[in-house]
């Protein structure tokens, strides 16, 4: 496990890059999701025995495996971005419109095709969003995509196309196909000239933090001292960091970003002299399929560069440990079913708190018996074969 402190953190840049995630925008996303008949807040668990065994003051986990029946959080971003698309057609402010309003609008226009590239969870979210809005979906998956991830897309009525490329090249291919065929590209990573939809997707993710804030109640979001966020392209982590920053009045908890060692572009970007984003090439072979991304989103990276405190590159064994800790908890803590990408933050936390090799990092981050830590389990057992294998080990 390797780590680097963020030398680029800047309050001025945080104010600049977090502008798209104002309180009004965050509230607008939460308002839209609450209007959906499929909506129900996901649980926030306090792992009291887990906190005690790790030497922490408190440990909370937001369990996104229950979101919309999709076994992952991605439906939040896809549904909100599609809502903004239809609001734009109506020339209306999407924040004031309900799901019913937008569904009526979608029904009044010719059916469109929403396309995306995915490692699995995002594609399922887009397929689901297209389904509930009565649209078509085309989902491109990289070479080696698990059959169950392909089936999850087709079960929702979308077409799944498995390429012979890695994730980042598949993203480029999906963009080319969308442009050629007049499809709406619903991608969760941004690049020059393509930022509006990725930012809308990120805004949709912020409903997670809105719910956590309400669920913490008297503990309050301001009482959280640390949050550990897993990152692929950085859109999820960037959205969480922006929401935490703005909902705490610019006084967020210590933000720790964790990535798989085989696909750690944010960690590598933080290690540069200039702070420019760095792309990782190759197969990026990791069990954390949802985080196996080589090209960081510039929107997510800019937010994290300005707000995160530390970037960590972790081996797959760290994620495996987190899966087992979630699934076989201490004492009376609730069991949480977490896939490889969802479990990485807990695995990291356990390594830092219990292994003397990381005592310096533990001290630098101020993790101790007074720390109140927040984790977000972003997925359930999206790859059941791997999940069973890890839990039997």
TrEMBL record:
Keyword list, A-Z: Lyase, Pyridoxal phosphate
Names of the cofactor(s): pyridoxal 5'-phosphate
Domain of life: Bacteria
Gene3D superfamilies referenced in this protein's UniProt entry, alphabetically: 3.40.50.1100
Tryptophan synthase beta chain-like PALP domain mapped to chain residues: 38-340
Keyword Membrane in annotation: no
NCBIfam families per the UniProt record, alphabetical: diampropi_NH3ly (TIGR01747), PRK08206.1 (NF006058)
Name listed for the protein in its UniProt record: Diaminopropionate ammonia-lyase
């Amino acid at each position: 496990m390797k780590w680097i402190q963020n030398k680029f953190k800047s309050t001025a840049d945080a104010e600049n890059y977090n502008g798209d995630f104002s309180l009004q925008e965050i509230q607008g996303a939460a308002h839209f999701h609450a209007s959906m008949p499929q909506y129900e807040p996901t649980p926030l668990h306090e792992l009291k025995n887990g906190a005690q065994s790790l030497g922490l003051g408190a440990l909370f986990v937001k369990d996104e495996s229950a979101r919309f029946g999709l076994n992952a959080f991605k439906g939040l971003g896809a549904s909100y971005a599609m809502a903004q698309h239809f609001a734009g057609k109506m020339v209306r402010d999407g924040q004031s419109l309900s799901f019913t309003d937008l569904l009526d609008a979608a029904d009044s226009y010719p059916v469109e095709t929403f396309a995306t590239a995915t490692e699995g969870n995002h594609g399922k979210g887009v397929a689901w969003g297209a389904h509930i809005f009565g649209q078509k979906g085309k989902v491109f998956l990289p070479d080696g995509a698990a059959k169950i991830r392909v089936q999850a897309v087709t079960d929702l009525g979308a077409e799944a196309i498995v390429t012979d490329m890695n994730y980042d090249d598949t993203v480029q291919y999906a963009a080319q196909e969308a442009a050629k065929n007049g499809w709406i590209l619903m991608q969760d990573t941004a690049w020059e000239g393509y930022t509006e939809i990725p930012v809308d997707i990120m805004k949709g993710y912020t409903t997670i933090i809105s719910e956590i804030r309400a669920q913490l109640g008297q503990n309050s979001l301001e009482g959280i001292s640390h949050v550990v966020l897993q990152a692929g392209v950085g859109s999820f982590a960037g959205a969480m960091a922006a929401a935490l920053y703005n909902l705490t009045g610019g006084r967020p908890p210590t933000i720790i970003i964790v990535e798989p060692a085989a696909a750690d572009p944010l960690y590598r970007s933080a290690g540069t002299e200039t702070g420019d984003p760095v792309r990782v090439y190759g197969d990026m072979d990791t069990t954390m399929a949802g985080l196996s991304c080589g090209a960081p989103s510039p929107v997510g990276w800019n937010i994290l560069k300005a707000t995160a405190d530390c970037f960590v590159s972790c081996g797959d064994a760290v994620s495996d440990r987190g899966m087992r800790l979630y699934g076989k908890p201490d004492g009376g803590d609730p069991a949480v079913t977490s896939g490889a990408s969802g479990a990485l933050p807990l695995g990291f936390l356990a390594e830092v708190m219990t292994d003397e090799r990381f005592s310096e990092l533990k001290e630098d981050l101020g993790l101790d018996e007074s720390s109140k830590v927040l984790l977000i389990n972003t997925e359930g057992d999206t790859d059941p074969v791997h999940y069973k294998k890890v839990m039997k080990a």
